[in-house]
Amino acid sequence: VTTDQSLKLNEPITKGETWYFEITPSDGSLSGETRRSVNLVIGNAPPKITYANIIPSKPASNNDLSVEYNYSDPEGDPEGNTEIVWYKNGSPQFTHNDKNPLPSSATERGDKWYCTVRPRDWDGAYPDNFVTSNTVTIVNQKPSAEIVSVSGAKDANGYYFGDVTVTYNLIDGDGDLCDVIVYYQGGSAGDRKSVV
Length: 196
Description:
single chain, mainly beta, five-stranded antiparallel sheet, two-stranded antiparallel ribbon, about 0% helix, rod-shaped
């Protein structure tokens, strides 16, 4: 009687080890010839990640985008050159491959960004599949104002009187036209009043 049989090895194995198997058949009365397998070299198991998450979740066009992921390796190998591909509005942006973070200079308001991540260990092993991150939309930047100077006539004590001119820089990273509301505060009561 001829049968195909298989045996499962229930022993711990380590990357780089060489194994072989010897099989000696027996019918209970007589033993047959011992056969030896070819050598099997234990290879490098690939690392894995189970999620990839872009932060911040509501970025403006002046925010860098970073991707967080949970690298792990069954043999404890450190992380190597993990592959990261960034996508803008559904199209891969190959000039930004493997960048983490993605610089804010690459983004504009209204863009939709996500990335795919495939981990590599220091030996170069990697899984077949990429993990896809969440998608973020680039939102409006807050404008900012910077007071540059205050000028006007001063009395002998150095106090301003009459008209006072405030010079400021108005900055909007998205290039939007902005309205300006100016408040002043003064007098003994310290009332805060709107100019515009």
